[in-house]
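Risk register update: the risk of archive-format incompatibility is retired. Evidence:
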Amino acid sequence: MLGWAVAAMAYRDYTELAEGKLTDLRKSVVNATTLAQVAQEIELGPCLLLGRGEAAAGGRTKPSILSDALEAVFGAVYLDGGNEAARTLIERLLGPRMKAAADRLDRLDYKTVLQELTARLFETAPVYVISETGPDHQKNFTATVIVSGKAAGVGEGRSKKLAEQAAAEQAWHALSQPASESSAG
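Archived output:
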């Protein structure tokens, strides 16, 4: 239901985008990280009934639980109110994020653009080194991206993927700056 509704929104509202970009746009919204953020924004966590162990372990703030719970809410609205009710809720909660993602669609996947840049500039691929801190229920990840044997960017996030994206973004900005400056002069 969720994938269908978001794909329909993307197709309806972003007719100028190529098929691959529409897929990127859908993926930018239909993922555990975004769904967990939306669940936090609507304060879904306190509404969850959890076992004592999970509640004590901070389950109401765990991204995986929050994203699953939001998907369950969408499913319940679909079962109770049908397609239109579910689509309306999904559009209300995810529409603004889709608009923001569309505005920065060319920069959504810094890992890919960094890989393309490092292949062109250094004929090598970036390497990510990950470290983690915090208890299991509240991990924080730090990624360092290494390019040609040197640290090119560092990023943090609640998941390895987010940390890698942040590191890749920092590295891409650092490495693309000199490339564009040297081509200008």
